[in-house]
Amino acid sequence: MAQVDTNIDFDRARRCGQPEAIFAQGKTPEQVARIARDLYAAGNTVLATRATPEHHAAVAAVLPTARYHDTARLIVVARQTDTGAGTHSPESAESAAPTKTGAEPAAARTIVVATAGTSDLPVAEEAALTAETYGAPVMRLYDIGVAGVHRALAHTDRLEAAGVVIAVAGMEGALPSLIAGLTACPVVAVPTSVGYGAHFQGLAALLTMLNSCAAGIGVVNIDNGYGAAMLALKILGVRS
Amino acid sequence: MAQVDTNIDFDRARRCGQPEAIFAQGKTPEQVARIARDLYAAGNTVLATRATPEHHAAVAAVLPTARYHDTARLIVVARQTDTGAGTHSPESAESAAPTKTGAEPAAARTIVVATAGTSDLPVAEEAALTAETYGAPVMRLYDIGVAGVHRALAHTDRLEAAGVVIAVAGMEGALPSLIAGLTACPVVAVPTSVGYGAHFQGLAALLTMLNSCAAGIGVVNIDNGYGAAMLALKILGVRS
Amino acid sequence: MAQVDTNIDFDRARRCGQPEAIFAQGKTPEQVARIARDLYAAGNTVLATRATPEHHAAVAAVLPTARYHDTARLIVVARQTDTGAGTHSPESAESAAPTKTGAEPAAARTIVVATAGTSDLPVAEEAALTAETYGAPVMRLYDIGVAGVHRALAHTDRLEAAGVVIAVAGMEGALPSLIAGLTACPVVAVPTSVGYGAHFQGLAALLTMLNSCAAGIGVVNIDNGYGAAMLALKILGVRS
Amino acid sequence: MAQVDTNIDFDRARRCGQPEAIFAQGKTPEQVARIARDLYAAGNTVLATRATPEHHAAVAAVLPTARYHDTARLIVVARQTDTGAGTHSPESAESAAPTKTGAEPAAARTIVVATAGTSDLPVAEEAALTAETYGAPVMRLYDIGVAGVHRALAHTDRLEAAGVVIAVAGMEGALPSLIAGLTACPVVAVPTSVGYGAHFQGLAALLTMLNSCAAGIGVVNIDNGYGAAMLALKILGVRS
Amino acid sequence: MAQVDTNIDFDRARRCGQPEAIFAQGKTPEQVARIARDLYAAGNTVLATRATPEHHAAVAAVLPTARYHDTARLIVVARQTDTGAGTHSPESAESAAPTKTGAEPAAARTIVVATAGTSDLPVAEEAALTAETYGAPVMRLYDIGVAGVHRALAHTDRLEAAGVVIAVAGMEGALPSLIAGLTACPVVAVPTSVGYGAHFQGLAALLTMLNSCAAGIGVVNIDNGYGAAMLALKILGVRS
Amino acid sequence: MAQVDTNIDFDRARRCGQPEAIFAQGKTPEQVARIARDLYAAGNTVLATRATPEHHAAVAAVLPTARYHDTARLIVVARQTDTGAGTHSPESAESAAPTKTGAEPAAARTIVVATAGTSDLPVAEEAALTAETYGAPVMRLYDIGVAGVHRALAHTDRLEAAGVVIAVAGMEGALPSLIAGLTACPVVAVPTSVGYGAHFQGLAALLTMLNSCAAGIGVVNIDNGYGAAMLALKILGVRS
Amino acid sequence: MAQVDTNIDFDRARRCGQPEAIFAQGKTPEQVARIARDLYAAGNTVLATRATPEHHAAVAAVLPTARYHDTARLIVVARQTDTGAGTHSPESAESAAPTKTGAEPAAARTIVVATAGTSDLPVAEEAALTAETYGAPVMRLYDIGVAGVHRALAHTDRLEAAGVVIAVAGMEGALPSLIAGLTACPVVAVPTSVGYGAHFQGLAALLTMLNSCAAGIGVVNIDNGYGAAMLALKILGVRS
Amino acid sequence: MAQVDTNIDFDRARRCGQPEAIFAQGKTPEQVARIARDLYAAGNTVLATRATPEHHAAVAAVLPTARYHDTARLIVVARQTDTGAGTHSPESAESAAPTKTGAEPAAARTIVVATAGTSDLPVAEEAALTAETYGAPVMRLYDIGVAGVHRALAHTDRLEAAGVVIAVAGMEGALPSLIAGLTACPVVAVPTSVGYGAHFQGLAALLTMLNSCAAGIGVVNIDNGYGAAMLALKILGVRS
Question: What ipTM was predicted for this assembly?
Answer without folding.
Answer: 0.88
